[in-house]
Design a protein that fits this description.
about 130 residues, flat, alpha+beta, single chain
């Protein structure tokens, strides 16, 4: 696809898309400079074609939360006190310490018998 750069004085091109982008990225033209290609009725700003996301591609805007609903939610929400948060953590910490003691199965040593196996002399002799 061939592109043309439209300035106040002249129309430059044709450029392929890679060349066109390189010219704009190098600062040769500003992002508001217009470009045109065959099949278009009129030129469009470079930034509108290559830099901005078309509005159709954007997700729908999230409506704001009504203030009365926000206030109601704040009143219904109970924020735990420091003691309410701290107690379960201390209990969990005690359980972890109990589980990590040397008497638990997790920390038992593995004993392997690595002595020479006994050989039955009768087996294998004829």
């Amino acid at each position: 696809m061939q592109w043309f750069v439209v300035t106040e004085d002249e129309q430059l091109g044709p450029f392929d898309e890679v060349e066109l982008k390189r010219l704009f990225e190098s600062g040769e033209f500003s992002d508001s400079t217009e470009v045109w290609r065959e099949g278009w009725d009129k030129a469009k700003k470079y930034k509108d074609i290559f830099l901005e996301t078309p509005e159709d591609d954007l997700p729908p805007e999230i409506p704001p939360i009504p203030l009365d609903a926000l206030e109601k939610a704040k009143k219904q929400r109970k924020i735990p006190t420091q003691e309410e948060v701290k107690a379960p953590l201390e209990q969990l910490s005690e359980e972890e310490n109990r589980d990590n003691s040397p008497n638990t199965h997790l920390n038992e040593e593995l004993h392997l018998d690595i002595s020479e196996p006994e050989v039955d002399e009768e087996v294998g002799t004829s």
